Amino acid sequence: MMSAKKMAPAAFAADSMAATEMSVMESNDAVYEESAPDSGVVQERKLIYSGDINLEVSSLAESKQAVEAWVKKFGGYISNSSESSTSVSFTANIPSAEFHNAMNEGGQIGKLKSKNIYSNDVTDNYYDLETRLSTRHILLERLEKYLSEAKDMKEMLQIETKINDITSELERMEGQMNRLKNQIDYSRINVYASLPVNQSETGFILPDTKTGARKFLGNVVNFFANFAFVALYIVIFGVPVILFAMLIYWLTFGKIGLIRKLFRRIR
After folding, report:
1. Smallest Cα–Cα separation from 103: which of 90, 93, 111, 115?
2. Looking at the DSSP assignment, which residues form a beta bridge with residue 112?
3. 263 and 134 within one domain
4. How far apart are CA 57 and CA 112, in angstroms?
5. Range of 229's domain?
6. Helix residue ranges, H only, the chain
């Protein structure tokens, strides 16, 4: 009987925490449903924009300076870049409010070869995560209040375990929200700039080895194709002609020798 009485506060605390969590979940679900599009309350759309710009430029050094100035003009920053002897590429992060202006102006840095714009609507994900974060914060506050009112060590340990779980979950969800907000606030634009075919940074025209190899291979193939055609032509038309000539010779000067016999009679 005594043990049941001692266990009562801990059991009561566990039931209270479960009831509190359920109550907080239901109240926030109701708030989320009221703010949903069907309720008539207009939610701000949350969109993630990204784009690709493919350019042909006459100078890699000048294009690098132009891209850096372009990014600075729109209040963005470069998160990644790479360079080769004939091309450079950048990953620029531009404030979303300037995305379309930046895309239009970025296409003027060089000769525009292609431009692509993408958008991803994350409105539902954003507000769902926001609601779940609010729920966890309210639950954490109530658990901390329960902890201050705990009557024994077991009850305190149960509440502290729950607080640790909620805190870890909050940290993970806040990390997701921060990443999502950053993707919404800053649009990613990939810029690729390359020199004209066979041209180096100094303007020297490089030999087109690929084209040369293709031409050489084409000439070899044509040679053997023509050779095979001539051989086939000889077989089809040459052999009958040769056989006919041999027949004429055989009739006139060969064993039969009609012409030879005719000359003998004349003599």
Report:
1. 115
2. 55
3. no
4. 9
5. 212-267
6. 2-34, 60-73, 99-106, 123-148, 153-185, 209-233, 239-252, 258-266
**Cα 193 → chain centroid:** 17
133 and 170: one domain? yes
Contact indicator for 113, 55 with CB cutoff of 8 Å: yes
Rounded CA separation 183/144 (Å): 33
253: which 2 tokens? 């000067």
SS3 category, 49: strand
Report the alpha-carbon angle 215-219-221, nearest 5. Answer: 115
**Listed residues 166, 183, 200: the one ending a domain:** 183
What token pair was written down for 234? 């000889």
Q: Express each pLDDT in 12-65 by its tens digit.
A: 455 555 555 555 555 555 545 554 555 555 689 999 999 999 999 999 999 999
